[in-house]
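Why should sequence recovery work at all? Because a backbone constrains its sequence more than one might expect. Tight turns favour small or flexible residues, buried strands favour hydrophobic ones, and helices have their own preferences. The token representation captures these environments compactly. In the example below, the structure is given first.
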């Protein structure tokens, strides 16, 4: 005859039945079922209070979680995620702390879990990356020390127009100085007016960092292009990354991925609409978006002085002063 298998619930029912029939007392039932008398009394009491349902296992989870996130905080977090769908837990948490204070916010891992629970997070594909330099951009210790300029890869808007975004940022503060979509070429004649506008608004950098492609370099003597010569006349030092080493301009290259995610996927219906996206993104990037490298604060909050400070030898915003290396005739390209 095979052994009969019983589960814990069956044994409890059997134990209660034997007790109700008067077959065994509590001490005898404890020895019979290999449990303590305290356990026998517990199940007898539950049966008297709740009947057979009282013999089922109860959840050991606490009724109230001492550190549970308030509903209003979760709702606000989801609203922020809706407003900035490309932001992850660190940036959303930084924004939430600015609104309600760090003492009322959950930790970053909890924010990640909330997003995951609501289906709002995804695992990013891991990429192989080059080993970074031990002291990248160590000289960019203040605004206007180094500006980074580059073209993001071109794409077509929905009406078929070719769009080539020209981006200009400050290496120290990450401030996005310009983001202009070009459609009629990428030569120096189109880049110069954009740079003049930035110089007048923010002053001039000590150095300009770029790759080795046109119009930022050429095959001429010393690799100088017309744009390079103009920069040198303005007293701006040239910094070119090594060929095939985009990681040397890694901050700006990483920014291009963010720009693509927010403005080009999918592209706008026209160049005009695409430029509106760029302008809105630039305001959001400079004024709202937390930056991990800046302690989760937007760029303007990271510096003790503003762009264009005359103390650093740069032009005051909106002025063209013929002083030292910042001569007016050079700025105008004479």
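From this structural description, the recovered sequence reads:
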């Amino acid at each position: 005859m095979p052994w009969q298998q019983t589960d814990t619930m069956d044994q409890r029912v059997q134990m209660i039945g034997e007790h109700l029939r008067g077959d065994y007392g509590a001490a005898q039932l404890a020895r019979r079922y290999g449990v303590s008398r305290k356990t026998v009394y517990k199940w007898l009491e539950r049966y008297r209070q709740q009947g057979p349902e009282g013999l089922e296992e109860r959840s050991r989870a606490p009724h109230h979680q001492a550190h549970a996130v308030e509903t209003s905080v979760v709702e606000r977090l989801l609203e922020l995620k809706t407003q900035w769908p490309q932001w992850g837990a660190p940036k959303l948490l930084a924004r939430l702390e600015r609104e309600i204070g760090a003492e009322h916010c959950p930790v970053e891992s909890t924010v990640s879990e909330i997003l995951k629970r609501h289906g709002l997070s995804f695992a990013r594909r891991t990429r192989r990356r080059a080993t970074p330099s031990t002291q990248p951009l160590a000289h960019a210790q203040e605004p206007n020390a180094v500006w980074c300029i580059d073209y993001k890869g071109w794409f077509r808007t929905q009406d078929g127009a070719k769009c080539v975004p020209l981006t200009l940022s400050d290496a120290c503060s990450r401030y996005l100085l310009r983001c202009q979509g070009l459609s009629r070429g990428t030569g120096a004649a189109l880049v110069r007016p954009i740079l003049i506008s930035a110089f007048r608004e923010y002053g001039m950098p000590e150095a300009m960092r770029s790759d080795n492609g046109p119009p930022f370099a050429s095959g001429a003597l010393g690799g100088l292009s017309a744009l390079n010569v103009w920069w040198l006349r303005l007293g701006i030092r040239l910094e070119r990354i090594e060929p095939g080493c985009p990681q040397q301009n890694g901050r700006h290259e990483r920014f291009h991925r963010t720009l693509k995610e927010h403005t080009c996927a999918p592209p706008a219906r026209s160049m005009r609409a695409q430029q509106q996206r760029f302008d809105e993104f630039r305001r959001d990037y400079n004024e709202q978006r937390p930056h991990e490298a800046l302690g989760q604060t937007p760029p303007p909050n990271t510096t003790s002085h503003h762009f264009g400070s005359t103390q650093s030898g740069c032009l005051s915003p909106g002025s063209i002063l013929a002083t030292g290396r910042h001569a007016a005739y050079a700025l105008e390209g004479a």
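A few observations help interpret the result. Residues 271-287 form the longest helix (17 residues).
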